[in-house]
Amino acid sequence: MTNSQPQILSIDEYHNLADRGFFKEDEAVELVEGTLVQMAPIGQDHAACLRALLEDLPVFVAQRALVQTQEAIVLNENTEVQPDFAILAYADDYYRARLPQASEVLLAIEIADELSLEYDRAIKQPLYARAGISDYWIFNLNDKYLEIYSEPDELSPGKFGYRTKRIPFINEAIPLPGFPDSLLSLTKIFPE
User: Fold this and answer.
1) What is the per-residue pLDDT across 47-82, written as a single tens digit (0 to 9) for each?
2) CA max distance for the chain
3) From CA 67, how far away is CA 89, in angstroms rounded?
4) Which of these, 7, 33, 106, 116, has the minimum number of CB atoms within 10 Å of its CB?
5) Residue 3 pLDDT > 70, yes or no?
């Protein structure tokens, strides 16, 4: 009799697979609750949004926090994800010795298109909330607006999410959480 249960991987086992060349060089994979998840490919709109944010985010948080793009953060012992952007608590060593932990993530940002929107809402959002990440943004490229989530909580037994969801107007300039002097123009991200 064979075991039909999928194997739940730890982060160490996941890293061991990567070190042994299990993944192709251009393969984008996340570890979610011990399961390998193939990430959606990046389209033109997604790439343009990445570039626009990459131009502004590092300037907004310079020398007060760190910005990383599409790099790993650890949410728990068997979940390591790669948000499109993470604004991290400042670390003098730039997290050279270890991966950033959920408690060090000030803002997680996903850029979502038709391939990834449901995943970012249904899977990533509760993961980030359960990990205690205080602020989560989804740049919704389908509907051309920003979804701002805050106040993570256990909304019902075992079900995590955010108590507050806000969708600003397209012509607003939005401050980054914790950086009220930074104003991100949404018209730059979602041009007419």
Assistant:
1) 999 999 999 999 999 999 999 999 999 999 999 999
2) 62
3) 9
4) 7
5) no
Residue 138 domain boundaries: 40-189
Nearest-angstrom CA–CA distance, 109 and 148: 9
CATH code of the domain in which 82 resides: 3.90.1570.10
Residue 24 has pLDDT above 90, yes or no: no
Q: Computed from CA positions of residues 4, 29, 15, 103, in that sequence, does the dihedral angle turn out positive or negative? A: negative
Question: Among residues of the chain, what percentage have pLDDT more than 70?
Answer: 96
